[in-house]
Records
---
Amino acid sequence: MDLSNAPGSLSNEANRLAALMGLGILDTPAERDFDEITRLAATALGAESAAVSLIDKERQWFKSRFGVPFTETTRDIAFCTHAVASRDVLIVPDATLDDRFSANPLVTREGGIRFYAGVPLIISSGYCIGTLCVFDPVSRPGLTDTQRSVLIDLARLATDFIESHRLRRMGEIAARVVDATSDSVVAADQNGRIVFWNPAAERMFGRAFDEAIGRKIEMIIPDHLADDAREIFASAGAEVTPEAGFLELVGVRADGSEFPLELSVAPWGIGPPDNGFAAIIRDISTRKALDRERESDKSFLDTVVRNLPAMLFVKDAETRKYLMVNRTGERAIGKPAEEIVGRTDRELFPHYGASYERRDGEAIAASSPLTFESKFIREDGRPIHFRTTRALIDGPDRPRQYILGISEDVTATRLAEAQVLRLAHYDMLTGALNRASFNDRLHRLVQEGEAFALLSIDLDRFKAVNDQLGHPAGDSVLTQVSDRLQAAITESGWVARVGGDEFVVVLKCSRLRERAADAASAIVASIAQPFATEKGVAHAGASIGIVLMPEDGSTTTQLRENADLALYRAKQMGRGNACFFNAEMDAAAQDRRKLEGDLRGAIAAGNIELFYQPVLSARTGQITSAEALARWTHTERGPVRPDIFIPLAEECGLIDDLGQQLLRKACRDAQTWPHHVRVAVNLSPLQFLTGKLVDNVRDAITTSKIRADRLQLEVTEGLVIRDVERTFEQLEQLRALGIQVLIDDFGVGYSSLSYFQRFPFDKVKLDKSFVDEIVTSRAAKAIIQAVVGLGEALNMGIVAEGVETEEQMRLLVATGCTHLQGYLFSRPVSADALREMLISNPPNGLNTSAAA
Ligand code: C2E
Ligand code: CA
Ligand code: CA
């Protein structure tokens, strides 16, 4: 059965059912109006039954029934279904004769329907929802015209009732909504006077219903804005503008406070121009505030992003095009955002773009943010180090749509690190490699086993430069030395500063020995050139020791030691020499090391002895003192000369122990001598350095109980060189103890007559070389005379040492020397032998022929 009972858009049964449902009438209780119609219809047509029948999906349901015992039937047996389908009046004179109904249970049952007349109920929307029908158990020929028109009129009345039922219901709903809504619902008549004012309007505008009704609608708008509003209100009733939507206006409350509102108007009434309008008004202050907040949040965020001190960029993860870059980014890249956005790294940076995009790719593949560091050359050529973290973020179109990048400029950090690295590896003053990195490199070279030459360079006279011109000048010389070294070697080598004035050059090339020799002589020649400094011209020189790897050693220690040996030898050869290491040096060094160990043992065992050599008065020939001279008899080698073991003891830090030991021993021995004989002890300049000398001397005197003035100390001129003030200070302290101080080997060292001004020595010992030459050299004789004159003037005795011949003795005595010492009188002898000698010393002295 085709139920599509309306043309066009109404043709749909589903829509018809929806319209029926929308009426809200199905299954509602009986109503008098409807019952009146069915009663009238039945009566007017003289029929037994009548009904207002509504056809829904499955049944016909009777809104009103007259003479019908049941409230509904199934749809398929309903006569009305046919009227609804045809949308026309349906008359069935005798159902038993009609094929459509003859088997219908409503017909076949006891007292069933024979006659039926139904008029379709068509509502204003055009849908047919049911019928007004009458039926009778008796067949009839049809309806008279009058009956037909009565039935149609009643059907129309039923339709009206159904529709007004709907409107009433809508009205009820609307009233409830209007009461309950938080929106103001306001209506005005054609003159703009308020005729409706809901509770929300009372609250919103702070005006009670009574107060609002009858007032002009402009009341809700502040006076200063009323003109604009008047126009809106004036046209509001004119036409229906479904597109108009909401207007934003400013409202005013009874207390004068203003608030933003949203207003939508719809006309109502009979029709233009007599229409009024209804308005729904919403207070949008909260929404506005939220909007404002959101707006300010956004602009805050924008400001943060723009001013972020790190570069921030966003790229599309697919196209890799930049979507945004902040101001720091613009500055870092050196291009304005307009030139960056919309382009890829490849387009922007032809040289590194690909590598940036590769990083993007890695970031896309990774599950968490990735950080990379990269170097970037700006448009202006300045290199920048970036540390960039990339994270994938979701976008509106798809997850992980964007690459978010934050790049920090770590250039300053990297430069600082480089600086630290340089400080760690290079000597700050000269820029050459420092000692630590030299050791590192040397270690690596040795491990690699490659051939190289190592030149150990020591500056000559550098201390003098420092002393004479000051440290800044010294620094300048060192810097220039470093530069000259760099210049003297080819690119196949490098320079390191490994000590105050010690440098090292490493060469890596072919024909090493030859090249090393060339380099060494170039260096010697170059360093021999004067150095210009702010304080004047300085002169230095270089001594060089050379070792070759692998010939001269297989470990760094061995190589360095052998280089030192070669350097030592070079220095022995005189300044400005270079010397290759050789095996003999090694043997000598080993020998020395062995001797050093033995000396250490001998000192510890107290095996260094003292011999004594007498000193005579030139006037009386009497022994006035004896000089203590150290003697060491090595168990294997026999006697070792003090010229050998004293410097050795000095070099290996044993001189203090030894000096103290000998000092005590000398004092002890002297204690057994006649009391007018003094004892002279030689001191090493190094003994002045520890600061313990004065205490040691005092200790030796007190433990041996000799008179302080019986002790003489022999010091050489060299000692004054190091620390002038402290040396003189100690000499004065010694003098204060009552001790005599002699200056030894006078005339060969760095003598300065000013020393005599600073400190009055008790005696001067003329160096043996003058004594040797007094017979043959007039110059020597003149010098001796001058020293004697000085001694007389300053009240110092003059001792001539190393007197071997009578002729020397005679000349020395004649010249005015006050004391004599030498093989002519006595060799150094053992303590016992000396005691013998002193006891048997004839009053006219030893071999006194000249002294008489
Ligand atoms: P020095 O202090 O100038 O000692 C004099 C040296 O000349 C001694 O040599 C002595 O034996 C030697 N001599 C004395 N008369 C003659 C002579 O007529 N002809 C020749 N050819 N030589 C003579 P020695 O004992 O070998 O000492 C050498 C140097 O060793 C000393 O020179 C001194 O500088 C140092 N020395 C010796 N003993 C000690 C010591 O106990 N302490 C320190 N610090 N140095 C010492
Ligand atoms: Ca001496
Ligand atoms: Ca001497």
---
Amino acid sequence: MSKIIVKGPVKLKGEVQISGSKNAALPILIGTVLVEGESIITNVPNLTDIVTTIRLLRSLGLKADFANNTVKVWGSNDIRHVAPYELITNMRASFLVAGPILARVGFAKVPYPGGCSIGSRPVDIHLKGFEAFGVDIRVEHGFVILKAKHKIKGTKFALDFPSVGATENLMMFASLAEGTTVLKNVAREPEIVDLADFLNAAGADVSGAGSDVITIHGVPKLQTVKHSVIPDRIEAATFICAAGITNSDIIISHIKLEHIQDIVKIVKKIGLNIEIIDKTAIRVMPGDKEYKPVNLKTEPYPGFSTDMQALIMSFLVMVNGKSIITENIFENRFMHVMELNRMGANIEVDGNKAIVHGVNKLSSTTVKMPDLRGGAALLIAALAAEGETTLYNIHHIMRGYESIKEKMQALGVEIA
Ligand code: UD1
């Protein structure tokens, strides 16, 4: 299926249950490379990126099963040190295998990741971190070759920027190093905390995750573990924005309230009513007054997430007045703007700023999803547009939204 057709405008009704987090599940699945024994990971969303990760694990010699949102991984006694080109370049998070392979085998050969549509996404911070542990690094024929010169010992390292991926890679690597590692200026995202919880459940000794300093006391091995992945805060934000643009009243459940504070704060500022049902569910309702434009900038967590930028932009497209969105994390994350404008939005891009002038209506047309979150933004806009919107390249949203078509249909959307 390469396209979907959405009939708008629609009013959503009912309840949507949020799936497990893709961005938490990917590093955790890759972290199973560190485990000697069986890993059982539950609440794993059924997505193409997850299937790619399972193929990656199998290519390294592990056994893996995926059924009913549970991944079982075992047989990690003989890890291959080479990660296949087609799997790494397909999905950037795959570079996270470098740390676990290196920790287990002392040697890793991983394709140098290329750029991707939202930006160049280099891995220099990952590599500087490995160097701080005394790892020898060469780039040859497009592969990064990492070699531990001697038994890996803990170290102190401060990241130039709190990169999510670099924090995860180094945290996994340090789990099996001898002695203590202190990582400073690390990312604080909930997905980092979830990875630390997984590692600790497997016998690691990681503390401080969620703050900007993580301390890891290395252990000789990680053992059989069972872990449940946190709910997907970005999927929750998607449904909040979908309810916002369509003036709908819906319940969003299976969430972790503390993880969605940034988006809740912003949509309340715009004027949506949010009722906190409990720590795992909210009700999103239309506001009583006219919605107000907002200015926001993306920042590392706990700042406003770059992954939610395109989503909130779609909502702001129909909020009267001028909103300014500044993208500080990725250099090329406004690719949905051109397509939103083709639907009748009025957005100007000036460098890393998008200036959104609210319009009263959107009209249906044919659009192309540019990437995962940009694709979700177009889907949100299609819910409010008058007529049938055809959205192409839906493989992008299949990477990050479990059963998106079925979930939208259950909320009353005519989607084919
Ligand atoms: C992760 C998320 C992604 C999210 C991003 C930022 C996953 C699978 N993906 O991506 O959805 O948008 O965090 O919250 O969890 N950078 C460097 N050098 C490096 C590493 C990163 O310059 O070595 C730059 C990147 O180019 C980017 C910024 O740092 O501009 C943030 O990247 P990073 O936090 O590493 O994002 P990812 O882990 O790739």
